[in-house]
Amino acid sequence: DRLLWACDLNFVRGEDSCVRAQWAARPLVWQAYPQAEEAHHDKLEALLAIYTDGLDPLAAQTVRDAWRRWNGVPGAPDMAACWAGWRTHRNGLSTHAADWQARLAAQPELTETLAEFVENKRPDAV
Fold this sequence. Notes:
Layout: H1 2-6, E1 10-13, H2 15-23, E2 28-31, H3 39-51, H4 57-70, H5 79-88, H6 90-106, H7 110-121
Parallel strand pairs: 1-2
């Protein structure tokens, strides 16, 4: 984790590393583990949709382009173009990463949320 905190930009692979990188509050490029029928592209798009929500549109496109290129999504711009966009938006992306981590930290605990879910579904179970 200290290595993630020390970097201005983290390239991470896999879901666990992606979570740790988000907690580091630094911009990141995530590579999902390849899955059959390119199911990892769906995971990638799902996370991109929520991670880039509220981000400046051009900066959001920069993140989408870089993540897609890094994951081999057909039609993504070449990495030189992605890197140029990243350099242009690096300050906003750094701020966004810190804001994103703060939003994650503000969410209720998972156990609390699960207990509430069960209670709402089956009031007699708790």
